[in-house]
Specification:
mainly alpha; about 90% helix
């Protein structure tokens, strides 16, 4: 279940890059879940680290106008 949540967050972050929204982020998020499952706990850690880094970058950007 945690893998699916992280996959959804990864898909959302990927989809935010182009700003169009739509199915691309959902498809890439689903692919990320498959990749994370094959990598096991390492994949889960990598996916979580990616989402955390993007959130931290966004927070720093907001605090430094």
């Amino acid at each position: 279940m945690i893998g699916k949540i992280i996959g959804a967050l990864v898909g959302r972050e990927i989809d935010r890059r182009d700003g169009k929204g739509g199915a691309k982020g959902a498809l890439l998020g689903a692919a990320a879940v498959g990749a994370m499952r094959r990598l096991g706990p390492l994949g889960l850690a990598l996916g979580g680290a990616y989402v955390a880094k993007k959130a931290l970058d966004r927070r720093k950007e907001r605090s430094n106008p």
